[in-house]
Amino acid sequence: MSVAHLTVRQAERADLLAVVRIERACFSDPWPHDAFERLLDEPAFLVAEREGAVVGFVVADRTPNHGRDIGHVKDLAVHPDARGEGIGRTLLRSALARLRATGVAVVRLEVREGNDPARSLYADEGFEPVRRVGGYYRDGEDALVLVVDLAAWAGRAGSGGGDGVESR
């Protein structure tokens, strides 16, 4: 399958069980159901659906900041059986476009320092590291904080390929 058979849309309450299942399949320290429930109305809580099944999701929000609003990609995951098909990249790009349409100028995210596939995806999309946060994750691993300017991102001519990896 390819992303051509994929639908990306706003998450709905009915999607939450599938989202939580993907979260648990992807992360050793998954978010609880109520965390997703609280974020359901965020502008870029999107799901990727294929043949009626949710195969991935992204959660991103927006914080007003004196005319230069900041977006935050909080969570991005693709079901392990659906990785390597560009779903992660499609979700990320959809979230960035949605945030930009709501007036966001800059987007940040945190990623495990050792998550090379996710770091590669983010670098391909123009994210740049701005700092390291020691012991950010519960298991003690450091996080890298990455940032992208959405005007520059939108002006880029086509990014390279990707593998739809999970990350947050």
Question: In brief, what are we looking at here?
Answer:
This protein has 168 residues and is α+β, with helices and mostly antiparallel strands. It has helices at 16-26, 33-38, 87-101, 116-124, 150-155; strands at 7-10, 44-50, 53-63, 69-78, 104-112, 128-133, 143-149.
What does this structure look like?
The chain is an alpha+beta fold and 168 residues long. It has one domain: Aminopeptidase, CATH 3.40.630. It is built from five helices and seven strands. Strands 1-2-3-4-5-7-6 form a seven-stranded mixed beta sheet. α3 (87-101) links the parallel β4 (69-78) and β5. The protein starts with 6 loop residues before the first strand and ends in a 13-residue tail after the last helix. Keywords: Acyltransferase, Transferase. Residues 6-151 form the N-acetyltransferase domain.
